[in-house]
Design goal:
Layout lengths: L8 H6 L8 E4 L6 H8 L5 E5 L15 E4 L6 H7 L5 E7 L4 H5 L25 H7 L2 H11 L5 H14 L5 H7 L9 H17 L1 H15 E11 L2 H13 L7 E2 L5 E2 L2 E3 L9 H6 L7 E7 L1
Parallel strand pairs: 1-2, 1-4, 2-3, 4-5
Antiparallel strand pairs: 5-9, 6-7, 8-9
Helix pairs in contact: 6-7, 6-9, 10-11
Length: 298
């Protein structure tokens, strides 16, 4: 099985409007699909690929134009400086889980396999899903499920977990699924479990704060007319990216000039979000929820 099928490959890479001698960053290297496509369009340019997951090292591209950085993209500006790069021509980020993470039973990302509750993108980090589920207070759990899973019955979910862990530690993915059977809605159980697991994964990996940090750094690292392509998979991420591109700040606060025009450091390349076509969705179901937004630095 392929490590990962890149989503919206043509659209996201073409959206960068690549200059053959430019400097580019793939913040979510993974299986290297987007990176390989970028390299096809480069002559003497340079590409930096970031990934915190050690498994991604197996996919490193043997090309003197490519530099792999085994770190969270939260620190990408600092690492570029380490390589004497201040400004870049384009940045690409394909957020969320790769097919490799979902289909690897040992990582604990999927409710389809029985595994230790782990969910760490970086297996050297300390906090695991098991820690979250067994040590968070009811209020912390409820807030997490409501905020990151967009689950309206978050209070009921957290109460069930608290009751269950009083008797026995919730250690595996199936322990968690079994604990939540009483609150899983009939006929839409899979969607429910996906939302629960998404919420825990976002918390374990601090994904929303990392995304905010990354977006702020793009303002400082993109050259004028440099572009950024971001693919998101849930509304929390998409809303953040959309508001940031429109306003140039994390809060999405719109500022206007004397004439009432919106002041933003970005120009939107696609005002309407780009989604996968039916053919791509047939080949890769993960593409169903993907949303691509592209912006150009003024």
């Amino acid at each position: 099985m392929s490590y990962h099928i890149p989503v919206l490959l043509e659209e996201s890479v073409n959206g960068l409007n690549i200059k053959p001698n430019g400097i580019y960053v793939d913040l979510t290297f993974g299986g290297g699909g987007h990176s390989k496509k970028i390299l096809e369009k480069l002559d003497n340019g340079k590409l930096f690929g970031f990934d915190q997951d050690a498994d991604a090292k197996k996919n490193i591209i043997n090309d003197n134009r490519f530099v792999f950085v085994h770190h969270n993209f939260k620190f990408f500006k600092n690492f570029l400086k380490f390589y004497n790069v201040d400004k870049v021509d384009g940045i690409l980020a394909d957020l969320g889980l790769s097919s490799h993470h979902i289909n690897n039973p040992d990582r604990g990302f999927s409710f389809r396999f029985d595994a230790e509750l782990d969910m760490r993108m970086n297996r050297e980090s300390l906090k695991t899903a098991k820690d979250v589920i067994n040590n968070y207070t009811q209020e912390q759990l409820s807030n997490m499920f409501f905020k990151y899973g967009e689950l309206r019955n978050s209070n009921k979910i957290s109460k069930v977990i608290m009751k269950c862990r009083d008797n026995k530690q919730i250690s595996t993915t199936f322990d968690l699924v079994n604990a939540l059977k009483s609150v899983a809605p009939y006929k839409t159980e899979n969607k429910f479990y996906a939302q629960v697991f998404q919420a825990i994964r976002i918390e374990v990996n601090n994904e929303i704060n990392v995304l905010k940090d990354m977006l702020i750094q793009t303002l400082e690292t993109l050259k004028p007319n440099g572009r950024i392509s971001v693919i998101t998979y849930h509304s929390l991420e998409d809303r953040l990216v959309k508001n940031f591109f429109r306003s140039g700040n994390i809060d999405g606060k719109i500022e206007k000039d004397f004439y009432g025009n919106i002041k933003s450091p970005f120009k939107l390349i696609n005002k309407k979000v780009i989604t996968a076509n039916e053919n791509e969705i047939k080949q890769n179901n993960r593409a169903r929820s993907a949303k691509l937004r592209i912006a150009e630095k003024n």
